[in-house]
């Protein structure tokens, strides 16, 4: 009968037509998402005009669409801006991550701009979908840069990274899923706050703004306990008992670096020859207590001294005869001097007893322990004398007489402080100059103050000295074969104006 329009052709109300005005039914714009539509005069801008305006309203939109023309998506769905409006898949689920949306909302923007960067906030005529403050992404399922661990219990959605600036690479942020920061070399931990194995944090430089973060441990392998690493805060290495220092490269007091630098060896300084137990850490040289002593352990005699006495920690002066010796040096153990050609330190003398005061019949000088005398007279008595260099001269005694004078005395009795081993020719009183404080300096040559023969009184008065001043004296014993000097003894003059008194040494 053609008395009404088809279900999807009610954009204008049904009107009967004629040959001039057919009044065809107009289709509604439902884009294939409705099976029928109806006319709503309120929606028609031109209700009196059949060919202008339109008031068709789609009924029961399907495919998750809504709106007058099924052009919108229902709540919880959205459409892409450039999608085909007639597609049955026009509206897709928002699929929002409720951990990242405000109030766990599943709503999203009705139209998503494919070419735009979503900030997580979309608008439509009827709704607004908002992500939490630290969340981004179309589905509100990603943390913003510098945040991590999206969880519903976090009021802002994600937690700040909190990476340690000293342990993190420049401009580095944490992983948004795990919170792991991007650490510099040598740093570790979720926030890069710890140093890795065999690294330490230069914390002192952090306060000055010069920190390099975690730096490698620098330990001397020869001085470090095997398998150990340095302290993660200070960088202090674990030293073996004989080492110390941050890198364990220095030897402790009482030890020195061995020549091959493989270990710290004990100083082993001589208890009497050295002034202290410690030694120089690189060479092992001990500090010798007396100028006559040298050697690494202070147990050897220096040039021009011999006969190291382990009980006293001293050596005796060589006392070589300047006429017959090559120089002032002697053998460090025996004290034998280096003689000039045809000169020796021992002499064999054979004399006839028949003639008083006669010259010796034969002289033998040499290093052999025997000699043959020939050309002698028959039935004649001869005297044999073996002359050798003197062996011992005891130190002198020194007494204070006044503020400017000292008295020096010495022994002349064989076996009581002297061993001459021959005929004494003279005694010399010597005074040493003031000693330098450097124990490695060469000994000071003595000044001969007085010479006396063997029959003179063994005493000498030294005058013109400084008040309350220390002086060193030795006595030299000479025989026909050589000389020997005593160890020094010390005397101090009295203070100016003081009474005479004897000094004890």
Automatic annotation (TrEMBL):
<protein>
    <recommendedName>
        <fullName>Fibronectin type-III domain-containing protein</fullName>
    </recommendedName>
</protein>
<feature type="disulfide bond">
    <location>
        <begin position="61"/>
        <end position="70"/>
    </location>
</feature>
<feature type="domain" description="Laminin EGF-like">
    <location>
        <begin position="28"/>
        <end position="93"/>
    </location>
</feature>
<keyword id="KW-1015">Disulfide bond</keyword>
<dbReference type="InterPro" id="IPR013783">
    <property type="entry name" value="Ig-like_fold"/>
</dbReference>
<feature type="disulfide bond">
    <location>
        <begin position="301"/>
        <end position="315"/>
    </location>
</feature>
<dbReference type="InterPro" id="IPR036116">
    <property type="entry name" value="FN3_sf"/>
</dbReference>
<dbReference type="InterPro" id="IPR050440">
    <property type="entry name" value="Laminin/Netrin_ECM"/>
</dbReference>
<feature type="disulfide bond">
    <location>
        <begin position="269"/>
        <end position="286"/>
    </location>
</feature>
<feature type="disulfide bond">
    <location>
        <begin position="183"/>
        <end position="192"/>
    </location>
</feature>
<keyword id="KW-0732">Signal</keyword>
<dbReference type="InterPro" id="IPR002049">
    <property type="entry name" value="LE_dom"/>
</dbReference>
<keyword id="KW-0677">Repeat</keyword>
<dbReference type="InterPro" id="IPR003961">
    <property type="entry name" value="FN3_dom"/>
</dbReference>
<keyword id="KW-0325">Glycoprotein</keyword>
<dbReference type="GO" id="GO:0009887">
    <property type="term" value="P:animal organ morphogenesis"/>
</dbReference>
<feature type="disulfide bond">
    <location>
        <begin position="267"/>
        <end position="279"/>
    </location>
</feature>
<keyword id="KW-0175">Coiled coil</keyword>
<dbReference type="GO" id="GO:0042995">
    <property type="term" value="C:cell projection"/>
</dbReference>
<keyword id="KW-0966">Cell projection</keyword>
<feature type="domain" description="Laminin EGF-like">
    <location>
        <begin position="267"/>
        <end position="317"/>
    </location>
</feature>
<feature type="domain" description="Fibronectin type-III">
    <location>
        <begin position="392"/>
        <end position="496"/>
    </location>
</feature>
<keyword id="KW-0424">Laminin EGF-like domain</keyword>
<feature type="domain" description="Laminin EGF-like">
    <location>
        <begin position="161"/>
        <end position="216"/>
    </location>
</feature>
<dbReference type="Pfam" id="PF00053">
    <property type="entry name" value="EGF_laminin"/>
</dbReference>
<keyword id="KW-0272">Extracellular matrix</keyword>
<dbReference type="GO" id="GO:0009888">
    <property type="term" value="P:tissue development"/>
</dbReference>
<keyword id="KW-0964">Secreted</keyword>
